[in-house]
């Protein structure tokens, strides 16, 4: 009660500040802030902007909090938001044409038409409306629905009251008002991103077989390999690192958390930073995925949390046995069931509407592929239906809201258990009291190993062990997914089956399975669909465990130690093999290695460069670029050939190791890397940042960090453009970073960094300001408490509202 009263008093004091003359910061478009007082009856909110355009939104209830959030997001990201709303309405083809590629932010659809057919089908079927009506906790709470209503109103108010300056959509007819349903539909798209969202092209292309020969399938072995590539978090454009330390490792007995999500730098899966406050009810800082109404990753006065993309497989397939007389009828225990036919029409720019039929079953939609490498032909006897339990999940926002209001890691766990809304991420948290917490609490199809053993088809017997993708016999009722008593919906695992680890010196995840969350306390006993046990870890996981275990052993940790870890930029791959490569290289006869096509290449200079390289990927590291280009090629060599010492589950952090320099692919990789850099006019010992950079405001900003195969904590996936000077952009990587701890005050000790800055509008002053910080390995000091917000030298205050 004392805390609630204190927050209420602080909130009143803060709101009193809003009566002063103020204007919106330059980050917003012209015309904003001209009216500073609410009109009668409309939604409103107070927004205080501090350094780097970070908004601190204060409102009296959830609808008005949503209003302020929608307004402030639109001010920074109106074009990206509008593009996403166009996607979930199924209207991309209407404005951009049917054949153009999507940006893959909200699905894997290859073309606008495929995307529109799917999302228009979702809209026509009333899927999201039905989910909005489901009572909490199985459906969204009233508070979350109010934030959605408010967000739509805030977004609409901004586009109505302001002139858009971003060239990406200035004057565009497709920037239009939205509804709460559009906001909810965007959340739905994120929920199914790893399920139906992966199979959209196959869902929208699926048609009953004709007299023409059926499309070619793949062997079970080929399918297993394709599924493994498709579902590997390390091969995706989203990943993350996160670690929580408990009080036994810290200087003051309180917890610490370092979150380092790796997400796309462009488009609709960017993070956006803010603070949300309802005095006496809610006070949280962090980052939201664009279009989200609550904080996705963040901290409050007592708890900090982050997420990492998990290894749990969020979908499964059911292989249907069809009626020989009608391929749209399938058999279950010998009884005929007719597929449901959904006819969807999509408006197309400059052409007639396109109308297609989608086919649905008791298990989900029929699909004819999971990507080009995994075709699933619909023949006269067989079809495949995709089951995605997140297609009935609108609980992600409520789960995050529970985190935002948590006062301990126990409260974080309670929110996970009550709402069960996380589709494709793990949760890592720490609190003021010194607790650490990890949970792989995902909405997963309830595929037990026993069920897979009893019911897998020949295809499933190959794909399930390899990737966790189950293909079950859809002709048998006894092969249906069961239910757990503690599950919020049928057909998913309940919280009691989830991998959880609490109150260890450290809990860490870098997108491998839960097994080595703490290397001294491996997690086992979970089903294959969650991930693997006792299998090789990625180099990023191995390097992360080495680092955080060493930190925990050292003890007396502070937030500054987390900051150093984020930018240590140690390259585990370099530590593992660079010395061996340099020695082998120096012994090559004539200093020559043979490249692709049998071309001899003089690599003698590379030997010295690799020997002198400092094994880091700082922007001034010499030799890092050469090693990067070499290792990308060498790491493609099969592990059995690449390493002399194979993986040992009893020594998982140190194996495999000992590079086999006799493997032909190793010498070829070095020769090709040297030839590649010379052809691009790049010195072998050039500083990394000279050739790994982004251009902002006409200036090059050197970027440190490195690609997945190098094992870097500070992951950067740069875009290679030899003609442009090397790596001339970043597709994904470190995004919203936070290092959080506590001292004896009520204010958390927090440092944050949004690597790509708040706005994609090149005319915004917040288009590149935090990117410059990132390039210089500098941080933002979080202004969480009222006194810190009031002291900001860049403080700007505005009260935004609907016009009536």
UniProtKB/TrEMBL annotation:
The keyword Acetylation does not apply. Keywords: Hydrolase, Signal, Zymogen. CDD domains: Ntn_CA. Gene3D superfamilies: 1.10.1400.10, 2.30.120.10, Glutamine Phosphoribosylpyrophosphate, subunit 1, domain 1 (3.60.20.10), Penicillin Amidohydrolase, domain 1 (1.10.439.10). Transmembrane segments: none annotated. The keyword Transmembrane helix does not apply. It holds the Pfam family Penicil_amidase. InterPro entries: Ntn_hydrolases_N (IPR029055), Penicillin_amidase_A-knob (IPR043147), Penicillin_amidase_dom1 (IPR023343), Penicillin_amidase_N_B-knob (IPR043146), S45 (IPR002692). One of its GO terms (biological process) is antibiotic biosynthetic process. GO terms for molecular function: hydrolase activity, acting on carbon-nitrogen (but not peptide) bonds, in linear amides. Residues 1-29 form the signal peptide. Belongs to the peptidase S45 family. PANTHER family: ACYL-HOMOSERINE LACTONE ACYLASE PVDQ, PEPTIDASE S45 PENICILLIN AMIDASE. This is Acylase. It comes from Streptomyces parvus.
